[in-house]
Specification:
The complex is a heterodimer of chains A (155) and B (617).
Chain A: H1 5-14, H2 22-33, H3 38-48, H4 52-61, E1 73-78, H5 81-85, H6 88-99, E2 105-106, E3 112-117, E4 129-131, E5 134-136, H7 141-154
Parallel strand pairs in A: 1-3
Antiparallel strand pairs in A: 1-4, 2-3, 4-5
Helix pairs in contact in A: 3-4, 6-7
Chain B: H1 5-20, E1 24-29, H2 32-37, H3 39-52, E2 59-64, E3 76-78, E4 83-85, H4 93-106, E5 115-116, E6 123-124, H5 131-134, H6 152-157, H7 162-170, H8 173-183, H9 195-204, E7 211-216, H10 225-232, H11 234-248, E8 252-257, H12 262-278, E9 282-285, E10 290-298, H13 308-315, E11 339-343, H14 344-356, H15 358-362, E12 372-379, E13 385-390, H16 395-402, E14 412-417, E15 423-426, H17 436-441, E16 450-455, H18 460-474, H19 480-497, H20 505-519, H21 523-526, H22 530-538, H23 540-548, E17 563-565, H24 574-578, E18 584-585, E19 593-594, H25 604-608, E20 614-616
Parallel strand pairs in B: 1-2, 7-8, 7-11, 8-10, 12-16
Antiparallel strand pairs in B: 1-3, 3-4, 5-6, 9-10, 12-13, 14-15, 14-16, 17-20, 18-19
Classes of the chains: A alpha+beta (155), B alpha/beta (617).
Chain lengths: 155, 617
């Protein structure tokens, strides 16, 4: 894909052009594009004189970064201990079944990405789901259907 | 710029003058839990209603940090904990806003919004009466829920930065160190290492510059103490770190915060900016000649980065892989320079020790563990949320008194502490006084303070499988025992859960577990088999039921269970309509049946049935 080099330069500059800030630079790029395009990784590595192998090592190590484009809506199912004990796996299965998509993947129409996280730290509201930054607490398989509807229609 | 005690006093007076014009204060909890439950709508509704009534100049509405009682959110508190309202606006928001207005205008207490005990027999007006709060002792969380975390003046008005002033102007670094050592403070991140000893080693280490780090990469599933602290009172963490920098002889600090905590990053950022503006950070702090700066760094969603050496790799801009600890961090840490890393909760204890003295801190807690500990009490307990109790409080007090027992009158089975490095503690040990050493003896550990309560519907083999799966995903892959060992252990436990376990599996698990613990490079691997070994130690009968009898007594492991419909089915057809595999058959108003061959055991029927007619066997 075509990347906006000016935009990337601004992000690099904002982070002081420091090599040790590469994770922060990637995160800023990801919040622009909703994923981390590999062209952007190549560009950043070139500018900061980081070997490509190192640049991609960091890009693939951290779960917060995705080299694959994400869906319009990002569903994040919490599978922390409290959520697991209170039915988190069934919540994930319901999303997978209803949206016909597997975890860590995006629906064919590009509407939803379904990911899991190992604790969002709102354990008192288990099982928890975060959709586009909005938290839904004490969910159950029936409420999952409602959540999907809300975002489908909102789109 | 604030340079003296008088300057601090001036801020206090100004703040008092600023809020004096308000007759009442209403505090609305803006912790992550209450925000998800809808506290923004309550805030907007109340502020709008006050404006309409022209009361907005008379009532101060404050957004505070976490109150701890997340289960009952959104929480609204009047004045100094005089009236405590829970679940405000959860059902009928307009009605509840009207009730809030009634309390503000006429002082009328709204029964509907009061907290009631689980048996509904008692109701409580003030926070001080509710057992969940009355039994706590707050040091770290003292100001959480009491102040606006985005207003440094309010923190100062409550004594904030007075410890920094005292340390920098009236104490030498050696004196501060002496106090921290004598206080008996031990690291709150999990290891429980003496904070004073760590500081001394870093202070004595040769070379420089030296670095200070705060670990806010709270990755243990089921734990959210650090998040609430960073969101609710970020100032106390900064203050502790600056004092630490002064003591150790460092001029640069880093706070490493989990990527999943955007609100914590935001609030820490605001607190940092305000501290710089007032001169608590920067050059010549309190005219003492001491300079200090702090940078906030976001993590990348990797659990292993909570490990000290991996955290430093990540700070250096590399992938977060741990390294061997032949050379200690205090001598060669960040960029190979002497470095001191403490958990954010540990840093938050420091200002209290300086303000109130080491003797006071050392008088709280148990023989070997001083002070208090914040726990996140979650799982199948009635009162879930965040609590702070003195070290040495028993598990029974925590779960049955503060926590008000097990949900739905079920039987307590175990409590899991220490996250993926900890273990499950059964009911025989409920009277154990909780501290670093006692939990260790039970085959678990304190960890960062997660306490996950389990009832008889939780399968312990499944819990072991859960943690192994977690660790397989989070292992960085650098060393073989961890990367391959945990994977093999997971395969065995998965087979057991699927009803395909063999007789030799238990011995095999124990052997592998030992090898992984001994052979791994970092703390993640060295403690990875604890969840398996502790469940084997206390719940062998459940493993045997899975292996020998192919049964899951708790009714969790799918291949070993079946869903059936009981005679009390009214034939409402709801389950049949919701069933994703269309395997529920029956006529309207007549009991239905499940075709077990087609059933995918998703549990949807169990969830939707309003008559409790779906059973797991």
């Amino acid at each position: 894909m075509d990347i906006d080099k000016k935009k990337l330069d601004t992000i690099i500059k904002k982070n002081g052009g420091e090599r040790n800030r590469i994770l922060a630079i990637y995160q800023d790029i990801q919040s622009e594009y909703r994923y981390l395009p590999k062209e952007a990784v190549q560009y950043v590595c070139g500018r900061l004189d980081i070997p490509l192998v190192k640049g991609f090592e960091v890009a693939t190590f951290y779960k917060a970064l995705s080299l694959k484009p994400k869906g319009k809506h990002s569903v994040c199912v919490c599978l922390g201990t409290a959520c697991h004990l209170k039915g988190g796996p069934a919540i994930l299965e319901t999303f997978e079944r209803e949206l016909k998509v597997k975890r860590d993947d995006t629906t064919e129409d590009g509407m939803f990405s379904v990911d899991t996280v190992n604790c969002l730290g709102a354990c008192a509201l288990a099982p928890l789901v975060r959709v586009d930054g909005k938290d839904f607490g004490k969910t159950s398989p029936p409420t999952v259907k409602k959540i999907i509807k809300e975002f489908k229609h909102g789109a | 710029m604030i340079q003296s005690l008088d300057d601090l006093e001036k801020i206090k007076e100004d703040f008092a003058g600023r809020i004096k014009k308000y007759g009442k204060t209403v505090k609305i909890c803006f912790g992550t839990g209450c925000v998800s439950s809808g506290s923004q709508a309550v805030y907007d509704g109340l502020v709008g209603a006050l404006e309409k009534e022209s009361l907005n100049k008379k009532v101060r509405v404050v957004k505070t940090g976490c109150h701890g009682f997340c289960e009952k959110g959104p929480i609204v508190v009047f004045n100094d904990d005089e009236i405590f309202y829970q679940s405000v606006g959860k059902k009928k928001i307009e009605e509840d806003i009207a009730l809030l207005l009634d309390t503000i205008k006429n002082g009328k207490v709204a029964d509907k919004l009061l907290y009631k005990s689980a048996d509904k027999l008692k109701k409580f007006v003030s926070t001080k009466e509710i057992p969940f709060y009355a039994m706590q002792k707050k040091i770290v969380l003292d100001l959480n829920g009491a102040i606006d975390p985005e207003d440094i003046d309010e923190y100062i008005a409550h004594g904030g930065y007075s410890a920094l002033q005292k340390a920098l102007t009236a104490m030498t670094p050696d004196e501060v160190l002496d106090w921290v050592q004598k206080s008996g403070l031990r690291g709150r991140g999990g290891g429980g290492f003496s904070t004073g000893t760590k500081w001394k080693s870093c202070k004595d280490a040769h070379g420089g510059p030296k670095y200070i780090m705060a670990n806010g990469d709270e990755g243990d599933p089921g734990a959210f103490m650090d998040r609430s602290l960073m969101e609710g009172n970020p100032g106390v963490i900064l203050e502790g770190m600056i004092i630490g920098g002064y003591t150790i002889g460092s001029n640069q600090g880093y706070i490493y915060v989990r990527d999943e905590y955007p609100l914590a990053v935001k609030r820490l950022g605001i607190a940092l900016e305000q501290a710089v503006k007032y001169g608590f950070l920067g050059k010549n702090i309190f005219n003492s000649g001491f300079d200090f700066d702090i940078k906030i760094v976001r993590g990348g969603g990797a659990f292993v980065c909570g490990e000290s050496t991996a955290l430093m790799s990540s700070l250096e801009g590399k992938s977060g892989e741990p390294r061997a600890k032949y050379v200690h961090t205090v001598e060669k840490g960040l960029w190979d320079k002497p470095s001191n890393l403490n958990n954010v909760e540990t840093w938050a204890c420091v200002p209290a020790i300086i303000n109130r003295g080491w003797q006071w801190f050392a008088s709280i807690g148990s023989e070997g563990s001083k002070g208090t500990k914040v726990f996140s009490l979650v799982g199948k307990v009635n009162n879930t949320g965040l609590i702070e109790v003195p070290m040495g409080t028993t598990l029974r007090q925590i779960i049955f008194d503060l926590g008000d027992g097990i949900q739905n009158n079920k039987e307590f089975k175990a409590v899991q502490t220490g996250g993926p490095s900890g273990g499950c503690i059964p009911k025989e040990y409920l009277d154990t006084a909780v501290d670093f050493d006692t939990l260790w003896e039970l085959g678990s550990m304190m960890g960062s303070g997660g306490m996950i309560v389990m009832d008889d519907k939780n399968c312990m083999v499944d819990v072991a499988r859960y943690f192994l799966k977690f660790l397989v995903e989070e292992s960085c892959g650098k060393c073989v025992p961890c990367r391959e060992g945990i994977r093999r252990m997971l395969e065995i436990v998965e087979r057991i859960c699927d009803g395909e376990g063999d007789e030799g599996d238990i011995a095999h698990l124990k052997e592998l577990g030992r090898a992984v613990n001994i052979g791994s490079l970092c703390g993640l691997g060295q403690s990875a088999s604890n969840p398996v070994l502790s469940t084997l130690r206390y719940f062998m009968d459940e493993y045997e039921a899975h292996i020998a009898h192919k049964k899951c007594p708790a009714g969790v492991c799918k291949p070993l269970i079946n869903y059936t419909i009981l005679d009390n089915c009214t034939g409402c057809t709801l389950c049949a309509r919701e069933c994703p595999s269309n395997c529920i058959i029956g006529d309207k108003k007549k009991p239905h049946t499940i075709d077990t061959k087609k059933c995918i055991k998703c549990g949807m029927c169990y969830e939707v049935c309003k008559f409790g007619a779906v059973n797991v066997v």
